[in-house]
Write a structure and sequence with these properties.
alpha+beta, three-stranded mixed sheet
């Protein structure tokens, strides 16, 4: 057979629609308990198909300050290497991990050896609504560009002041 692991809320032959309902309830409870952001908005959907079934948790409003990793955005703007930078912020990765943990509580995985794909009760995924990351990156880029423009203006003003000090204007006395 193989090694089986079961989430603490797993029950054999569970209907995925009921699992989705329970996951929604668990997410709401985690928000009320303060373990997830108060503004969090998700959608839990299921699909059934000939190869199995899947459950998806779509994060529509993450309820966190920054979704993208601004350090990575800045590195990309400067043309620097982004190896080692996550695309999402630490807050976003923590939110995703917390939701994945909730989903895993209801699943069962059986490993069939190192060269085989494991068998699961359902394929679970947690993902951010398309466009959220792009919008975050656009906001971060705009903020960096505004800061760069402000710094350039301050630098130009400082250079102009230095030029006046070094080369005072000719005074004409009558």
């Amino acid at each position: 057979m193989g090694n089986a692991t079961h989430g603490s809320k797993y029950s054999k032959n569970q209907d995925l629609a009921i699992v989705a309902r329970r996951i929604r309830k668990d997410i709401r409870a985690a928000v009320v308990a303060g373990n997830l952001p108060a503004e969090l908005k998700t959608s839990v959907t299921i699909s059934r198909y000939s190869g199995g079934q899947s459950l998806g948790v779509e994060i529509k409003n993450p309820g966190i300050r920054v979704l993208c990793n601004t350090r990575r955005v800045r590195a990309e703007m400067l043309g620097n290497d982004t190896t080692g930078f996550y695309a999402r912020s630490e807050e976003a990765r923590e939110l995703e991990a917390a939701l994945v943990a909730i989903v895993r509580e209801y699943n069962s995985t059986t490993s069939h050896g190192e060269h085989c794909n494991p068998t699961v009760d359902f394929y679970g995924s947690v993902y951010f609504t398309g466009g959220l990351m792009d919008a975050c990156i656009a906001r971060a880029r705009a903020a960096f560009e505004a800061a760069d423009a402000k710094a350039a203006a301050a630098h130009a003003a400082a250079n102009e002041t230095l030029a006046l000090i070094r080369e005072p204007a000719q005074l004409v006395l009558f």
